[in-house]
Amino acid sequence: MINPQEFSEFAASRRSVRDFLPSPIDQGTMDAILTDAMTAPSWSNTRPYLVAIASGAQRERISRELLSRNKALAAAQTGGWMAKLRLLATFKSWPISDYRIVRPYPKELAVRSGRIGKALYALLGVERGDAVGRAKQWQRNYEFFGAPTELFIFTHSGLGEYSASDAGLFMQNLMLSAHARGLGTCAQGSVAIWARPIHREFEIPKGYKLLCGIAIGYASADPVNSFRAERLDISEIVAPSVIL
Fold first, then answer.
1. Domains (range + CATH), the chain
2. CB contact at 8 A, 194 and 66
3. pTM exceeds 0.85
């Protein structure tokens, strides 16, 4: 049996990595991580998800495509009406995702999101009004933070939220298994903004939609990897009982 304290320390030590070494992941290690991920529980054991693995030339091709689309979108957002017209004329640059990715945070959750954003950008030395610096950091998402491999997680739309729930359990096992093997990961909703170029690269059965990506590889010594996100106290997520 695993020592509970050791597990607590191990789980707490997992962090999102935002800068990776180019060192490749050998096939045996990747297979072992995916095998561990598959031990997660699933709705009626349906496993309503797929994983597409991009590395090497395919990874570079996808990155270039997403970077190009992000550049066009950023130009439209910061430019005048002509820039916006150019975006409209370039259909492929429209942010079209399989699921609704971009949505406003509810007020009570926006506070938490704001705190982590402020802390991360402070570490990076990017001021609140530094639009160029913020855009440059956002662009790193489409470089997969330098990771040699990007995983794309698809879920079956036929099971709706249950597919997403199962995928979340699968992803957590995957990230912990990678962490146990000395690798880092970063879950990325940003790469799902443009789903079509990802679908084009893989044989994805009908009914499966792109949920998110996961950058995976060996963490570099870049200072960004020293970032430690706030851990909420459990009192903030435990619902109080109704007194009858």
1. 16-228 (3.40.109.10)
2. yes
3. yes
